[in-house]
Every structure is written in C-alpha cells, then in structure tokens.
Specification:
- The protein is an alpha+beta fold.
- The protein folds into three domains: 90 residues, Dna Ligase, domain 1 (2-Layer Sandwich), CATH 3.30.1490.20; 126 residues, 2-Layer Sandwich (D-amino Acid Aminotransferase, Chain A, domain 1); 150 residues, Rossmann fold.
- It is 36% helix and 25% strand.
- It has 13 helices and 19 strands.
- Strands 8, 9, 10, 11, 12 and 13 form a six-stranded antiparallel β-sheet that branches. A four-stranded antiparallel β-sheet has the order 1-7-2-4, covered by helices on one side.
- The protein is elongated.
- The structure holds adenosine-5'-diphosphate (ADP) and magnesium ion (MG).
- The site of adenosine-5'-diphosphate has 17 residues, from strand 8 and strand 11.
C-alpha cells in the first residue's frame, strides 16, 4: 500500500527525522490558510498523487509552458494562484502513464534553501535477505539513469538485523554522500531513525529523493515516498487508515474485498484462473495466440460460488473485455462446483461477450456436463492450448 508524501513526512517526523513544516490542503482556501501558518517568505505548493516526477510533470488542462506539479511561491498570493491551477486538474508525469492523475490534495510546505540534493532509499534486498540503504550524491534526478550511467556513484548497504544500524554503517552512508560538519552529524542520527521507522512500520520501500543539505548546513527530508507490506497492514491500523482509495483501481478495490488476487491490465481477454502459476501461464498462452490479457485473476484454491460470481462481475465490469477465458484446475476444488459457480455467475451477471471454459481435474466429466447442459452460450475447451485458441478466435470473429 502506498501513501501520500505529506503522510509519509508526518510519519517520519514522528520518528524524529528532519522534515520541514507543512500542511495538507484540499481547497484553495485551505492552501492559503496553510501558507499563513508557515514562516515564509518561500513556500512550496506540492501536488499529492501516488506518483513521482511531479516537479517535471505537466497539467493536461494548462498550456504546455505552465509550471509542473511542484511549484515555488514567493508570496501568499502566489500560493493561492498555484493552488487554483493545480486542484482538480490532471497531472501527467513520467510515472502516471498518459492518463495522468487528478490532483485532489496539495501539500503546502516551508521552502528550503538547497545547497545539495542527495538520494537515499531503503528497501528489502532479496539477495542478502536484509533491509538495505541505497544512497547517492546524485539526488533530485532519475536514479535509474544514475544506476545505468554512473553505477559507481551509488552505494548499497545491507543492514545486519541483529546489530541494526551501527555507527560504522551510518559513517559509510555519510562518506558515500560526502557529508561533513552539521550535515554529517544529522546523517549519523537519521540512519538509525529511518531504519527504526522502516522495520517497525513494516515498510517495503522508503525513498527520499531528494534528501538535501541546506545552505545553513543541516540535512532535510525534502521528498518522501513510502510503501507498506500489504500482508502486515493488520498490525498497523494507523497506517491502514492512510489508504487513499481514489488513487487505486476500482476493480482492484472490489477484488480485495472478496480476497481475490486481481491486477488490471490493458488487454481485451478477461481471465479467471485458480492458482497464481496457472494464471501466469494462461496470460502467456493468450499472448502466444496473438491477444492480450485484460487482467491477472487468481480466485484461489478455496473459491466458492460467491467468489466466482464476484470475480465474474469484476471481469465483466471492465469495458475493454471482449472475451472471457475461465481456466480452472480442480484439485482440492471440484470441477462440478466451479461449473455451477460459473453458470450461476453468468445467469446473475449476464454474458455479452464470448466465454470459453476449460476445466481439468477432480470431477471434470461432471463439470463439463453441467456446462454443456446449461443451455448458455459457453464454449468448452479440452486443454489450455485449445482454450486459448478458442477464445482468441471467438473475440476476432465477434469484432
Ligand atoms: P517529485 O520527485 O515528484 O518531482 P519533489 O518533492 O522531489 O517531487 O520535488 C521536486 C523538486 O522540487 C525537488 O527536487 C526540489 O528541487 C524542489 N522542492 C521540493 N520541495 C521543496 C521545498 N520544500 N523547498 C524547496 N524546494 C523544494
Ligand atoms: Mg522527488
């Protein structure tokens, strides 16, 4: 689960990280009110969307030469003007895709005098099974580009979970960031603070780009992106509350209610499969026969009629879906139960596109019989190859 920058900063501040003063705002009036509470004379108006690259982003509704989604303001009047231009408009950044994201909230923050912009992130390093820091002196820009062109400018430092962040670790990070004086002292304090926040809150990613050295020599967290491990959210009701559903795909929200593993994709063939491996294989074979899957959907091992119906509703709610492929291996689950679920779902939801069903495993003959005798326009298939070819052909013929 992702959260907004202002929420991430409030969380990091509560652990003791150096974060500027700032307030979220949902209206222009609130933005003005927020700015009045800040010392000035420099304010920053920041679009809050779950995507980076906001500074260089463009608003769809504004002229191409208009400023981006993160803007400096030198007076309260300017804060008002920027807030008016940003709220309700659609920000397109390198990370949002062409559709962009509507800006519904802003963060009004005290402006900083920047001397240097650094990069710092933390993630779970699968190769060492440890939480690792990744730091670079090349902050504020695209870290992927730095990794490609000048990988020697990036330090990855895994942390021993028993020892935590040692003085030696913090020193290595400060060295890699070429910090001295007050900023160095700040880094030695910041590294253990971030590690504590990361581990206590079950984060999966923490990215501060940029972490800055200010003209006065102190360190400050200027941007913050935090993702949490969804499987650990039950331990953190305070974090779960920060979820902003307007940032998520509606179909994925509905799927999570029914405990279905669903990911929306761009293709035209909806898939309903049990088991993640089989779902991946189904997507692959659809592509092999020249079409694209509209989703990944794993109904799980214990799918019942209700779950199958919910899954069907989610698939058919996608306007891009021109055909559906149901591919079920009845292991623990019986094929006849699935067949009944599919028939009930079709009767309940209606069927406007071709549907191919492939069943295999326990009670397969009974399952096929139920499908064949249902009187519904369902195409049954014998194996995965057959099923994929049949659905691709049916969709081509229908269009
Ligand atoms: P994004 O990464 O989405 O573009 P950032 O928060 O990193 O958004 O902001 C982009 C740039 O705007 C930063 O690299 C920094 O130069 C500037 N900036 C952001 N916040 C402030 C601030 N509080 N004071 C001064 N400059 C800022
Ligand atoms: Mg940034």
């Amino acid at each position: 689960m992702n959260i907004h920058e202002h929420q991430a900063k409030a969380l990091l501040r509560s652990f003791g990280a150096p974060v500027a003063e700032g307030f979220p705002a949902y209206t222009v009036d609130e933005a003005v009110g927020a700015a009045k509470k800040l010392p000035g004379p420099l304010y920053v108006v920041k679009s809050q969307i779950h995507a980076g690259g906001r500074g260089k982003g463009k608003f769809k509704e504004l002229p191409a030469d208009a400023e981006g989604g993160v803007r400096l303001a030198f007076s309260i009047d300017e804060v008002e003007k920027h807030a008016g231009e940003m709220l309700g408009n659609t920000l397109v950044t390198a990370q949002t895709g062409d559709d962009g994201k509507q800006v519904n909230r802003l963060y009004i923050e005290d402006g900083a005098d920047i001397s240097r912009e650094l990069y710092l992130s933390m993630l779970i390093d699968r190769s060492t099974s440890k939480v690792a820091f990744v730091v670079s002196t090349e902050g504020g820009m695209d870290i992927e580009q730095v990794a490609e062109e000048t990988p020697d400018k990036i330090l990855t430092l895994p942390i021993d979970p028993d020892a935590g962040v040692t003085k030696d670790d913090a020193g290595k990070l400060a060295d890699a960031l070429k910090l001295d004086g007050e900023a160095r002292g700040d880094m030695l304090k910041l590294a253990p603070v971030l590690y504590k926040a990361f581990t206590e809150k079950d984060m999966s990613l923490l990215e501060i780009n940029p972490l800055i050295v200010m003209e006065n020599g102190a360190l400050r967290v200027l941007d913050a992106k935090v993702s949490f491990d969804g499987n650990a959210l039950f331990r953190h009701p305070d974090i779960a509350e920060l979820r902003d559903k307007s940032e998520e795909d509606e179909k994925e929200i509905e799927a999570s209610k029914h405990d279905l593993a669903y990911v929306a994709l761009d293709g035209n063939i909806g898939c309903m499969v049990n088991g993640a491996g089989l779902a991946m294989a189904t997507m692959d074979i659809i592509k092999l026969y020249g079409a694209e899957p509209a989703n990944f959907l794993d109904v799980g091992g214990g799918a019942n009629k209700e779950k199958v119906t919910a899954a069907f509703k989610i698939i058919t709610a996608d306007p891009n879906v021109e055909g559906i492929l149901v591919n079920i291996f009845g292991g623990i689950m019986k094929c006849d139960v699935i067949a009944e679920g599919v028939i009930a779902a079709v009767k309940d939801v209606g069927l406007k596109v071709p549907l191919v069903v492939r069943l295999e495993g326990t009670n397969v003959e009974k399952g096929k019989k139920i499908i064949d005798e249902s009187g519904l326009n369902v195409i049954s298939a014998n194996d995965l190859d057959d099923a994929a070819q049949k659905i691709v052909k049916a969709v081509q013929e229908a269009s």
